[in-house]
Design a protein that fits this description.
With 201 residues, the protein is α+β, with helices and mostly antiparallel strands. It is 36% helix and 29% strand.
Length: 201
């Protein structure tokens, strides 16, 4: 990972602007997710900020057990990756709603289960990108999502070492979705190629 002696930190006004955009994106994502899993979804919290990559694992939904990570590459006016990390309970809940059967274990993933979670990431990522694209002059394109299933620390290590292309800091959004009969907890983070480009928001 490259080390830049001039830390590319956004100022308070820029972070607040991003927080407003993230809140709008989270609300849109909640609406899309509600339609996808056929149950009511509300956004209970959104918190945006700039963090050193080494601190990202502290935001994981749970330090115990396995988690699901869904990664969406974005390119255009701003570039980087959207990373959604869900705890095991949230993953089982989403799968059970879409597949319409109880999910007792995630020890074996089939193509259908992976497709469901990738589409979940696609729905949330597209909602967020659409919110960014509302800014005049921004042209942003999401790629097809990919997913991984591992312990949170291992997931973050992989994301940081493979996808953090420049600098040492990331924009981070902690978004919590709630459903009437369960809680869907996820960490949504932006891993930027270059944090400086996000000053254009």
């Amino acid at each position: 990972m490259m080390t830049n002696p001039i830390l590319p930190i956004l100022n308070d006004e820029q972070i607040q602007r991003f927080n407003t955009i993230a809140k709008l994106g989270a609300d849109r994502a909640a609406e899309s997710l509600a339609k996808w899993i056929r149950t009511g979804i509300v956004t209970s919290s959104v918190k945006a900020g700039v963090m050193h990559y080494s601190k990202l694992p502290e935001l994981s939904p749970s330090s115990d057990g396995l988690s699901t990570a869904i990664l969406v590459r974005i390119s255009g006016s701003v570039s980087g990756y959207l990373a959604l990390i869900l705890d095991e309970i949230s993953t089982k809940y989403i799968l059970s709603r879409i597949l319409r059967r109880d999910i007792d274990t995630l020890s074996e993933w089939d193509n259908l289960s992976r497709s469901v979670m990738e589409e979940t990431g696609n729905i949330i990522g597209a909602s967020f990108v659409n919110s960014l694209a509302m800014n005049p002059g921004l042209d942003i394109h999401p790629s097809s999502p990919v997913m991984a299933y591992d312990f949170p620390d291992a997931l973050w290590d992989t994301l940081v070492t493979q996808y953090a292309l420049e600098g040492e800091y990331a924009l981070s959004c902690h978004i919590t979705f709630n459903s009437p009969d369960n809680s869907i907890c996820g960490i949504f983070s932006v891993i930027s190629d270059d944090l400086q480009t996000w000053k254009t928001l």
